[in-house]
Amino acid sequence: MKVREALEKATAELRYAAERPRLDAEILLARHLGWERTALLLRDREELEDAEGFFALIARRKAHEPVEYLTGRVSFYGEEFFIAPGALIPRPETELLVDEAAKLIRERGMRRIAEIGVGSGAVSITLARLFPELEIVATDISPEALEIARKNVERFGLGERVELRQTSLLDGVGEVEMILSNPPYVAEGTPLAPNVAEYEPATALYAPGDGTSLLREIVALGRDREVPVLCEIGYDQRVPMEEFFQAEGIEEYRFYRDLAGMDRGFIVPFGTMKQ
Ligand SMILES: C[S@@+](CC[C@H](N)C(=O)[O-])C[C@H]1O[C@@H](n2cnc3c(N)ncnc32)[C@H](O)[C@@H]1O
What we know:
Strand content: 15-25%
Number of helices: 12
Number of domains: 2
Number of strands: 11
Structural class: alpha/beta
Low-confidence stretches: none
Distance between the termini: 70 Å
Helix content: 40-55%
Bound molecules: S-adenosylmethionine
Shape: elongated
Order of helices and strands: HHHHHEEHEHEHEEEHHEHEHEE
CATH architecture of the largest domain: 3-Layer(aba) Sandwich
Radius of gyration: 21 Å
């Protein structure tokens, strides 16, 4: 079978399983052959090596396995990170969390911050690359996620500045100037697409009740430590978080939105406001 025929067949096979069947087929074929995607067009009359191996990948994609887990790569903030089952695949909207964190770090000249729930490490690594003086303590309860983060931290040569710790929230973590998190916030029992529900770690997605329990705990940590808190939230969690802020007498806070106008996160500037 020629490269071109393989691409056509794979695209047809992914027709109902993938949102972008042709793109996924190209990405997986390029990965399978170790070529750049552009080479697929130029060399489309060549005989495909190990067609069976390629169609085994296509079968996994057809069963909804995410392309990122199949290739071991994910793009975040213009960089490529290693990814594997065990860590959440970083989402484009989380780049906004990086942008909001970067503003605060720059404004206040922060030197040491914490990330709760580091996952693959994409957020902490991106910030460490943006701020060459910054140190980050990045926690996670999942040893699998921490192992994936460790590979990324090493790959970017950031072992000196991004410290990975297996602990819950900030247990055992000393002084930091800001707490940043994209915690699990999906309400228990929420049905998710099969590519997410069947492949991404449940501990990275779900939080008890309406999904805001960890967000509330993180806000409480910021209040106790008197440092700003910055968190990503689900698009429908602004109201419960505002109710929580009001109930707790927290008056100063700000929500940020994504390009589609959906609520995506909040900042509570503890430590700098009058309460
Ligand atoms: C939504 S993922 C975010 C991963 C990564 N920061 C990102 O944005 O792509 C949430 C992460 O929080 C971790 N986590 C869940 N409960 C935690 C806890 N109590 N303390 C620290 N990390 C926790 C999960 O293991 C998971 O890696």
